[in-house]
Amino acid sequence: MGLPVCKHGGKASTSTSGAGDLLKHLGVDLSVVNAKTTPEIVKNCQFCFLFAPSFHPGMGKVASIRGQLGIPTIFNILGPLINPIPIQARILGVYSEKLGESYAQAAAKLAETNSAHVRTMVVFGEVGLDEISPMGPTKYWMVESDGTITKGTVTPYDFNLPEHKLDHVRSGTPEENAQILYHILRQDDPEFKIKPSQNHPIVDYILMNSAALAVVAGLTDSWPVGVELAKAAITSGNALKELETFVEVTASYSKQ
């Protein structure tokens, strides 16, 4: 979609696989992306993953304890709000409506006191997901850069997409997730190939959440148009190219 993306996150603490686990399996050395190297990395990559413990050492010290607990902690709540890179738009997922309200208020306060003018979309899938849900309604709070908050609800149908059962989009192991991701980005497996209709549930799930990013970033104000932009990013090969560039650039730092 042409958007530079800096995702701030870590490894799984309450699930089988987090973004950090997936990228590590793809060959990314998470430790080389730090405060010193990131400015140069983002100059050469449209995608960058910021491993939270590398930027917030305190989080790294409690990582094993969080994993043992297996439940959301204050770090799950705090982490998404403290992206170390200046950003213009973001989507924050929460696991309860009450927390969604609090996140929106926090984002509004940050917008009022920060000159970065960040637009934030907070989402809560009513089935209990901290993403836009493939099934049923998702509540959202759109926080403008001036602190104004607009509340709304979306379903897959608002994206011109069908609903899918949660079991059909459930995360697997890092190895399984990496394989599926590459099949989608390479479009080399009929099961995960983007079609005019009846896509694999995981494909629709990715398209829907990517479309929301296009909307919050201001590329469009239409959910269905956002889906088409996401489709084009994948079928053109651009999404794969940006991921491979990030893998290659981080590998070059590992060799230094």
TrEMBL record:
NCBIfam families on file: trpD
Top-level taxonomic group: Eukaryota
Keywords assigned: Glycosyltransferase, Transferase
Cellular-component GO terms for this entry: cytosol
Keyword Methyltransferase: no
GO molecular function, one term: anthranilate phosphoribosyltransferase activity
Record InterPro entries: Anthranilate_Pribosyl_Tfrase (IPR005940), Glycosyl_Trfase_fam3 (IPR000312), Nuc_phospho_transferase (IPR035902)
Domain Glycosyl transferase family: 1-240
GO BP, sorted A to Z: L-tryptophan biosynthetic process
Protein name in UniProt: Glycosyl transferase family 3 domain-containing protein
